[in-house]
Structures are given as structure tokens and as C-alpha cells.
Amino acid sequence: MDQQVNQAVNQQPQQHKERPAQVTVLAALAMLAGVIGVITGIITLASGAIFSFFGSSAPRPPSVVILLGILQLAIGALYIGFSVGAWRLQRWAWPLGMAAGSLAIIVNGVRLIYNLVAFTKGEPVSGIVGPVLALIVGGIILYYLFSDPVQRAFDL
Q: Rounded to 10 degrees, what is the CA torsion of 89, 93, 98, 101?
């Protein structure tokens, strides 16, 4: 009986695919970006809540800061979800990575433009480097998602 079970198990085709190096890099980069995004989102949400609670003058309205915090949390969560799915070569991870990268580019592009306009007006800004780095990471992720080895790995 045990021999029949072993033969049946051995006759089943192996479904394990080798993960390409590009997918491994993507998964690691997305996990790093996701963790940083979640931490940044929590800090941004907390500062927005503090500004709205105490009514202090802030460079941005508290509602805008809270919205940015929520968006950063969402982008971070999408990146983490994509990272886990990409590591396991799950087909659903590819569109999730597209959504995360695209949303990161849109949100951080708007942040960068807002900060540059505020800077030219002499108003305080929350930074230029963060949005630029987020734009670069989002661009790298989208670039790799459209590469042939990565698309083949996700059976696209």
C-alpha cells in the first residue's frame, strides 16, 4: 500500500518553478519599500492627527497630511503583498505590483510637485528626497515587471 502511494506521488508532475533573479530582486525591493512605506504612513498619520488635535499651524492642512498617511500605508501594504506573492511566484502578484508601483509614482509625483511649488514660494516643505526615491523605486519595479523573464515567471 505504501509503495502504491509513493508511486502515485512520484508520478505527479513537479509544479515547482525556479524563481528568476529579477523576481528575487523585485520581491526584496518591494518588501523594503513596503516596510518603509508602512512606517512612513504611520508617522504621517500620527503627525496629521496631532496637528488636527492641537490645531497648530502646519505647513499643510491636517486633512492633507492624514490623506498622505493613508495613501502611504496603502502603498506600503500593496508593496508587501506584492513582495510575498512575487517570492512565491503567485500569478496575482504581478497586477498587485503594477498597482503598487503605479500608485507610488502618482502619489509621490504629486508630493514632489507640491513640495517644489511650496519651496519656490518660500514655504516649509516636508522634503524632496523622499518623493524622488519613491519615484525611482516605483519606476524600477514597473520596469522589471514588464521585462520578459519576470513576465514568464508569472506565466504572462
A: -90
Q: For residues 51 and 82, give the distance between their C-alpha atoms in angstroms, rounded to a whole number.
A: 33
- In sequence order, the 6+-apart residues with CB closer than 8 A to the CB of 100 are 30, 34, 75, 78, 79, 81, 82, 138, 141
Digit-coded pLDDT (tens) for 53-94: 666 566 667 777 888 889 999 999 999 999 999 999 999 999
The number of C-alpha atoms within 13 Å of 118 and in the hemisphere containing its C-beta is 15
Cell of 127: 522634503
What is d(CA 1, CA 78) in angstroms, rounded to the nearest whole number? 47
Q: Which three cell numbers stand for residue 57?
A: 499651524
Q: Which three cell numbers mark 113?
A: 510637485
Whole-number Å distance between alpha carbons of 117 and 58: 16
Q: How far apart are the first and last CA of the chain?
A: 41
CA distance 92 to 83: 11
Three-state secondary structure string covering 5-26: HHHHHHHCCCCCCCCCHHHHHH
| Cα–Cα distance, 153 to 125 (Å, whole number) | 42
